[in-house]
Amino acid sequence: MIIGGGVVKLKRLWVVCPACGRKVEAVATDGRVKGYCAVRGQYVDFPVDINMPPMPPSFAGKHHTPESKAKMAASRQKYLRSQLESS
Ligand SMILES: [Zn+2]
User: Fold this and answer.
1) What confidence tens digit (pLDDT) does each residue in 41-61 have?
2) 58-86 pLDDT, tens per residue?
3) Could you count the other beta carbons within 10 Å of the beta carbon of residue 33?
4) CA 44 to centroid of ligand 1, rounded, Å
5) CA 67 to ligand 1 centroid distance, Å
6) What value does the mean pLDDT take over residues 10-36?
7) How far apart are CA 12 and CA 25, in angstroms?
8) What CA–CA distance (Å, rounded) separates 75 from 84?
């Protein structure tokens, strides 16, 4: 792969290949993203709007949700009740 022009800023990024669904390293130039698809065995253009999210949704939202707060409140009530019953 030859990229001409020394002034072109290259940006390396990871994209999900629409052809095979694999994560491949790609190079962004002039609003175009080119990456090597191992399955196709050649460099292919990727849609520019493919951006890897910084984190999978499952890892996000570590802060307390209303659900976890309710869980905590319930366990606290349970603890208090057990204390009352034991005395
Ligand atoms: Zn691919």
Assistant:
1) 998 888 765 455 554 555 445
2) 544 556 677 888 888 888 888 888 888 87
3) 20
4) 8
5) 39
6) 84
7) 7
8) 14
CB atoms within 10 A of CB 80: 10
What's the gap in Å between 57 CA and the centre of ligand 1?
23
Compute the C-alpha angle 7/10/12, nearest 5°: 170
Read off the amino acid at residue 29: T
Tokens encoding 87? 């005395």
Q: pTM of the full predicted structure?
A: 0.40
CA-CA distance, 40 to 48, in Å (whole number)?
19
Cα(39) to centroid(ligand 1), Å? 5
Enter the tokens of residue 3. Answer: 């990229």
The token pair that represents 33 in the structure block = 């993203």
